[in-house]
Specification:
two-stranded antiparallel ribbon; mainly alpha; 5 helices; single chain
Length: about 120
């Protein structure tokens, strides 16, 4: 998914060219913000690093289990759909309806925005 507009007539490179200001005042590119789970699943005690270490793997498993406990069979059913076309269509709908409309107005992200997709 990429944004095409007057600012990015050739596209924003899937958010890589689009700089956003995070709630803590730091600057990130938009793609990295979403790659990091919109920073929602991270906290001050750990950050996702590449390649993943055992601390990250353990933390992500905890987050996944929390989602399963909160959303139950709905999440399990979604996780069983391994068709990349389904994932792409879902991502496209989210980008169209949630992700890009907000940042077309401002590049300053707030807590309400980060909660939209969750």
């Amino acid at each position: 998914m990429a944004l095409f507009n007057e600012t990015y007539p050739k596209g924003d490179l899937g958010g890589n060219a689009h700089k956003v200001i995070l709630t803590n005042g730091s600057v990130s590119n938009f793609h990295s913000f979403w790659d990091a789970g919109a920073y929602i699943i991270q906290n001050d005690s750990w950050h996702i690093v590449r390649p993943m270490n055992m601390q990250n793997l353990t933390a992500l498993k905890t987050v996944a289990n929390d989602y399963l406990n909160t959303y139950g069979s709905q999440v399990e059913q979604l996780a069983k759909d391994i068709n990349p076309l389904t994932w792409a269509q879902e991502s496209f709908r989210i980008a169209q309806n949630t992700t890009y409309p907000y940042i077309s107005k401002t590049n300053q992200l707030d807590k309400n925005y980060t909660m939209l997709a969750y």
